[in-house]
Every structure is written in C-alpha cells, then in structure tokens.
Amino acid sequence: MSDNVLRLSDITMQFGGVVAVDNLSLEVNEGQIVALIGPNGAGKTTAFNCITGVYEPTNGQVSFYDKVIVSNYPHGKMKKLYKGSNADKYVHEKILNPTPDKITRKGIARTFQNIRLWKSMTVFENVLTAKHLHAKQNIFTSTFRISHAEERRMREETALLLEEQDLLRFRDELATSLPYGLQRRLEIARALATSPKLLLLDEPAAGMNPQETQELGEFIVQIREKYGVTILMIEHHMDLVMQFSDQIYVIDFGELISHGTPAVVQADQRVIDAYLGVVEEDA
Ligand SMILES: Nc1ncnc2c1ncn2[C@@H]1O[C@H](COP(=O)(O)OP(=O)(O)OP(=O)(O)O)[C@@H](O)[C@H]1O
Ligand SMILES: [Mg+2]
Questions:
Q1: pLDDT tens-digit profile of 165-185?
Q2: DSSP code per residue over 160-187
Q3: Quick one: which atom of ligand 1 is closest to the CA of 47?
Q4: Residues with CB under 6 A from ligand 1
Q5: Which residue ranges form the domains of the chain, and what is each CATH number?
Q6: Exposed e or buried b per residue across 212-228, where buried means at least 16 C-beta atoms within 10 angstroms of its C-beta
Q7: Which atom of ligand 1 is nearest to the CA of 16?
C-alpha cells in the first residue's frame, strides 16, 4: 500500500469564464506537513473548496488514501465554455456528488481563512457540538440519540482536547471573546474533534505576530505527532512555511509553478518573481 493520503489529479475549477484553479496536481503523503502557497487570488482556497465538497471541480480527480472521492469532467454547459486542459481524460469516470459533510465523514477536516466559530457558543460547546454533529452523521439515522455513556465520553474527550490545546481554562467563555490567535487554535481543536486523518488549514497564522506564528508552527508539528494527522496548509507567512513544511506547492493564476522542498522552492526564480519577491504580511 502506498502512503499517499491526498492526490489531486488535473484539477481545474472554472467559474463561468474564469479559471480559478488550472490543471493542478499535487500529492500529500502520510504524516507530512505540506504547504500550498501563492499570491492573493492564486486559487488556493478554491483548491481547498474542491477537496472538501464546497465546489465540484470542473475537471479532474481527488483521491483520498488511493480511493477516488471526487471526479468530474466538463459536461453540460461547461463543455463548450471549458478553457482548461485534459477535458477528455476523466470522461469515463463516474460523477460523484460530494458535499462537505460527506467529505468530513471520510476523514478530512478543515479550518477557514475567515474564522468560522459558532459565535453564540462557549469554547467547550464549539468542540462538543462538532463531536455531536460528527457522531450523528456517522450513524445515518434521524432517530439517533446520543446515550448518556456516549455523551459522557464526548465531554471527556472535549475536555482533553481543550486541555491539550491549553484552552481548557477558557472553557466557559464565549468563543468569540478569545483573543484572535486563540480563536484560530480553537478552530483547529474543533476540526480535530471529528478525528480526521487529514487536516486542511487555510491561513492558520493570518493576523498573528511573529512570535504567535512561531508558536503556531510548533503547535502544528505537535498535533501531527499527537493525533497522527497529515496536514495541508495554505499560508502567507513564509517563515512558518519554510521552517515547518516537508513539501511546498506554489501556484500562480491557478497554475502550479513550482514544487519541492523549502530549499528548492525558495531558490526557484519563478517563485521569487511571482511571489516571494513581493510577499506581503497578511492583515
Ligand atoms: N465562487 C466564485 N465565483 C467566481 N469566482 C471565484 C469564486 N471563488 C473564487 N473565485 C475567483 O477565483 C480566484 C481564486 O480565488 P481564491 O479565493 O481561491 O484565491 P486564494 O489563493 O485563496 O487568495 P487569498 O490568498 O487572497 O486568499 C479569484 O480570482 C477569485 O475571484
Ligand atoms: Mg484564500
């Protein structure tokens, strides 16, 4: 068995006439921390949305542990409009109907570029509710009730998760009352509540200062070890990306322009011209 966790093959996402992701292929292997970087508007979040069932890609295939979970080709109205490549390659694939909850159930969890915590819930409730939803989705019945024993187990797991993230002291605070950096950590804790195999982080260090960013990098390495998760992250903080990634993929205008270890990518003239030469701190 290969140790491949995620594979994107020729993924193109076209909105009307706009090609946001253009024939992107990438691989993430077991236990790796992989970064997806590129200028604003390069298509990074759109790529995440194609993996997580928010969008069905116009063309291409997504595999998770060597099983195809998403597959599509330009058909219907898009057949004529399509500007990407490989339009014929996936013609015989069955079209799935991926949705975010189905993808989460398969073991992929994510955080969002703009934090999406449940605003009226406490820190504890944010994580516990994620566990409840996940448990219900896994049972597939509308009559499912969580037993007392199950509820107790979930509460214990939630407390443990928060303790490990050093968030337990805030358990009864409203999630949105936490400082920004801790809200980002809480969002990661909530993503971990669904016991994912793969964690997708969309700009986890956005808005953090250099010290918080460094701590977040160390935290990401810790959760990889502790929870056995594989990580694909989008980031603009190059110090974090270069220090903590095993592999980096660079996209510009939706297209892959470089890929390799931090040393390789950092020295790639195409990356310097398109991105690193003009990299800005995120607001
Ligand atoms: N639903 C949509 N409809 C039309 N165009 C879209 C849609 N979603 C994204 N786009 C376009 O796709 C391109 C890529 O956007 P995306 O948000 O993926 O960029 P990004 O790399 O995540 O940028 P940033 O670093 O600023 O977050 C942009 O030109 C954007 O306007
Ligand atoms: Mg984005």
A1: 889 999 999 999 999 889 999
A2: HHHHHTT-GGGTTSBGGGS-HHHHHHHH
A3: 18
A4: 15, 18, 20, 38, 40-46, 113
A5: 1-107+196-283 (3.40.50.300), 117-195 (no CATH)
A6: bbbebbebbeebbeeee
A7: 4
